[in-house]
Amino acid sequence: MDYADEKLNRRKFLLTTTTIVGGAGVVATAVPFLSSMAPSEAAKAAGAPVEVDLTGVEPGKISTVEWRGKPVWILHRTDAMLAALGKHDALLADPASKIQQQPPYATNPARAIRPPFFVAIGICTHLGCVPVFRPEPGAPDLGADWPGGFYCPCHGSKFDLAGRVFKNVPAPRNLEVPAYTYLSDNRLLIGADKKAG
Ligand code: FES
Q: What share of the chain in percent tops pLDDT 70?
């Protein structure tokens, strides 16, 4: 088995077991899967865009949909969460998102088209575990300077509420933001850019 195969297998394994791993010493916040207005299972597996109704995603809450076999998070950030994003750049490895881990329209401080809604692929950029949503600033197990974000239980990588990776952790890059667009105020399409014209 070459490295690529091994990494793929590990990712599949971790995707199905992170809940168990994450239980060790960490109170994980449950992340409900949204029932998206999805295309057929076959179409989804082939990579078709997935439509999501945002009305059920309350401020401060996160939901997950599956796209191309990956978990995609939709986090509805509160005003306080958004205000906190600008206060810890010194802790981050790539605060301005210079490494292209997002489409051009998400290359901004909130890493989003509309700042309240953060959309990201929920897979750690180290070895593919699924990080845990840890929104509570100053959580005792994460340190007094923890601003709220996502914690990867596999090897301790940390990301803020815009998916920006902290310095001095194994993950080398910010979390990936997929292509997405708004079909209306409350309807999101994940996996497709806005059509020109
Ligand atoms: S897979 Fe996330 S820190 Fe290693």
A: 75
